[in-house]
Amino acid sequence: MKRIIIIEDEKDISNLYKLLFEREGIQIEEIISSGKIALEKIDELKDSLTDIIFIIDHRIPEKTGLEVAKRLIEISPVLKNQIIIATADDTISKDQVHDLGIPYFLRKPFSLEDLLATLDKIEKSS
Fold it and tell me: Structural domain boundaries of the chain?
């Protein structure tokens, strides 16, 4: 299983991810709560991003989730297949996410099964 970095500013949702993944035996590398910190982390890790799956909320402080995703794709276009945009934000559509080449979009609230199925698709395609 690839490492997972979650970019999510709501503590309740971050804790929920943590509980769900721990129950499934999935290790979370890090939870980042702002777009600015996420971009700094991405630049710090840019030589080892290919083994990381990113779960990104669109509405985060300082930068949007799509801005963070665009930076990942700038570093390496193949990373678009390791990004899940997970958001309750109605101002962003599945089409906008797909236009960036990102195949994985989950509208909150989503089920654990949907999230695990998406992670499984990413694992199988890499």
Answer: 3-125
Tell me the pLDDT tens digit for each residue of 3-25: 999 999 999 999 999 999 999 99
Assess if CATH 3.40.50.2300 describes domain 3-125: yes
Question: Residue 102: how many CB atoms within 10 A of its CB?
Answer: 24
Nearest to 106 by CA among 119, 115, 117, 95: 115
**Ramachandran region, residue 27 (left: φ > 0; alpha: ψ -120 to 50; beta: rest):** beta
- The rounded distance, in Å, linking the Cα atoms of 11 and 54 is 17
Between 65-75 and 35-44, two packed helices, what is the crossing angle to 10 degrees? 10
